[in-house]
Amino acid sequence: MDDEERAETLHQAAELIAHAHDLVREAVRGTDMEHLTKNGILSALDHWARDTGEPTSLVNLSKNLSLRSQDPLWTQPLGSPKYPDRRAAGATLIKHKWNSRSGAKMRLWGFGRLKGSKVRIPAAVGGPLGMVNGSQVFSRMFRYDQGGHRSYEIALSSFGPESYRRLYSITFHMRDEASACAQVSRFLAERDIDILNSDSLSVISSVGMVWRMLADISYFGEADELEEAFRSLKGTSSLSKVEEMVLCESNICERFNLGAAPSVTGISTKLIKTDSEPTVIEDGEFRIPTEYLEMLKDVDDGSVAMMVADTDSAVLSLTFLKDAHLAELSLIIPDRPGAVQKVTEALSELEMNLLAVHTKVLVFYERMSLDLVIDLGEYPHGIDVLSQKLCSGLGDGFELAGLRRIDP
Known about the structure:
By secondary structure, this protein is an alpha+beta fold. It has helices at 3-28, 34-38, 41-50, 58-66, 123-126, 180-189, 223-233, 253-258, 290-295, 339-349, 383-394; strands at residues 108-113, 118-120, 136-146, 149-157, 167-175, 194-204, 208-216, 242-249, 268-280, 285-287, 304-310, 315-321, 326-334, 353-363, 367-375, 399-405. The protein folds into 4 domains: 3-70; 73-104 and 162-251, ACT domain (Alpha-Beta Plaits); 108-159 and 258-321, Chemotaxis protein chec (3-Layer(aba) Sandwich); 326-405, 2-Layer Sandwich (Alpha-Beta Plaits). The chain is built from 11 helices and 16 strands. The strands form 4 sheets. It has a 6-stranded antiparallel sheet with strand order 1-11-12-4-3-9. A 4-stranded antiparallel sheet has the order 6-7-5-8, with helices on one face. It has a 4-stranded antiparallel sheet with strand order 14-15-13-16, with helices on one face. A hairpin with a 2-residue loop joins strand 3 and strand 4. The protein is globular and about 70 Å long.
């Protein structure tokens, strides 16, 4: 059997599993087992058959066999800042983006006010990024221009700009057994590799575990050297409970270095200020550098600041809202196509601008929550009238859970 035949066989296997997925879904549709199987067997079947973000899924295995003569995925150059064209010769460890199959990430938001030169960072927003009392943050200021409109953003990050050159996303696949995490920790510590942000999860109890981390390899060397060290120890007593290491250069710097809209057509993005020295968070407040405030001529003391935590990029975005009249709207809506659109169109007809949107499924195919931050703008009536309009206009299946003004 040649590689093309092997690839075709795997493709057929993927189709059979996909067919099994559809059969199971149809069998449980409309029963009390529907929501259980969606996150259980249906998710697993779909993942291993068709998930392009899973290195060993059947669709990826089939594709790699088909392209073997053209160098498969795992032999492609890793690249590094020092050796951008270096090839990981003989590598058998598959490289892919850390977030390739993580789906949409939750964005956290909060509000504050400018008091002098300081803005208080809500704990719920700054905490996930490590921006707490005593921590230091680096900052950059961007200017965005579009169609005669201009806006400024201050981007905060706990990682220094120079550190980005040696940060890598590393994922370890391990057995769910005692000392598995200890083996990984020892492997990294012996090579002077610093574990930064990380999360471990037992994905299959008593069977498999995944540990994803952001790590600094500055004191070790090159990424391909780390891969070679792992290969040489895999299967020995040192890494007897560790099955795989997936390594890729972190792109965490892109958001902090390039801004929020580096490639959006029609928006001009320009880095205009960088504070070379980190600022220490004190009493939950960030002190805005003087040179930033000098650029923000239209921002007065007491202006509302909107803060958005991008956990993917470890960046806190800080912008000031001019003449904003904010409110938080919470709804329970049907879990079906078009439900979110119905709400957003109703608000659009009232000329209200949406600043933040968050949805979360409560019961699959039945109901979900929808949380919105809206700018009431010049809406002439109170929020009580707005509540009545929404309740009467949205129809059955839509329930107003809350509407309140935001006064940070």
